[in-house]
Amino acid sequence: MSTIARDQTVTGRAAGLASAARPGPRRRLTGSRLRAGLTPYLFVAPGAILFGVMIVYPMVQAVQMSFFDWKIVGSATSEFLGLDNYIRAVQDEHFWLSLTNSGIYMLFTVPPQIVLGLLVALLLKKKSPAQPLFRVLFYLPVVTSWVVVSLLFKYLFADRGLINFTLGDFLHLTSGDTSWLAGRWTALAAICALGVWKGVGWAMMIFLAGLQGVPQELEEAATVDGANRWQRFRAVTLPAIWPAMLFVVVMLVIGGFNVFTSVLLMTGGGPAGQTDVVLTYMYQQAFSFLDFGYGSALSVILTVIVFIVAVIQLRLFRDRSGEVLA
């Protein structure tokens, strides 16, 4: 009996060692999990690399340049200035003028784009044979080049342009000889008009996408309860499109502070720099005067301002969302 038991013990140990030597399902499962875990990163890697090269690296380089008297021509070495460029910006009256103009542009273009974009989206929400045509017509300015529309509006607001002809010779509301682009406020009005005209279609498309998520049963229930259009909009539609509203407001404010092409092509910052915005002033310092250090400092300051404004907006919308839902 002892011999048989000993043989069985030896056989069991051998089988155990052979089983341990074979790759089990756990080891194969671990390999598949590893591949599954790496697959998303492989898909994300090209975009992440492009983002790092095109966005992150230039931002880091701009911050570095803002602390130097940066030289790009000749053999001179860039001189470290510390915070001198930032102190210069704080003391620069023209910088504050350009920042004020950027704020004016933002304040006079963002609200009209939101109101008109939402109004057009509500009008085009209903199905009709002409709905696709009107959507294309309202969205057409969005895909049109900024250069093209800026030059178009420059000629419209010229001394003998269509605006003066319409207001003066046709409607007799003005004398017809207004130099729109020769004064600060009239030039800013023309630039703001272009910004509103070009941006309404973009806001409309975002709001249209948000309106697709409005629960129809809630609208029908509100109608049965006797709610009018304004009450249905406030109690049902607005809470449903609140995330779209947040996205539109934040993106339009960022775009308002970053206005550049229309100002550069319509007025060039004139007359005497009175219509300069931050980006045109930064462009002038960097590429006209080759003062890349100061231009980089201006860009960093603008980035910080836009970031702070965006954070405040997110906080206000988060606090306001409870009141809207109520």
UniProtKB/TrEMBL annotation:
A Pfam family recorded for this sequence = BPD_transp_1
What the entry lists under InterPro entries is as follows: ABC_transporter_permease, MetI-like, MetI-like_sf
Ranges that cross the membrane: 36-60, 104-124, 136-158, 178-197, 240-266, 286-312
Which residue windows does the record flag with biased composition (Polar residues)? 1-11
**UniProt KW keywords:** Cell membrane, Membrane, Transmembrane, Transmembrane helix, Transport
**Compartmental location:** Cell membrane
Q: What domain of life does the UniProt record list for this protein's source?
A: Bacteria
List residues of the ABC transmembrane type-1 domain: 99-313
Q: Region (Disordered) spans which residues?
A: 1-26
Q: How does it sit in the membrane?
A: Multi-pass membrane protein
The family note in this entry says: Belongs to the binding-protein-dependent transport system permease family.
Protein name, per record: Sugar ABC transporter permease
Q: Which organism is it from?
A: Leifsonella bigeumensis
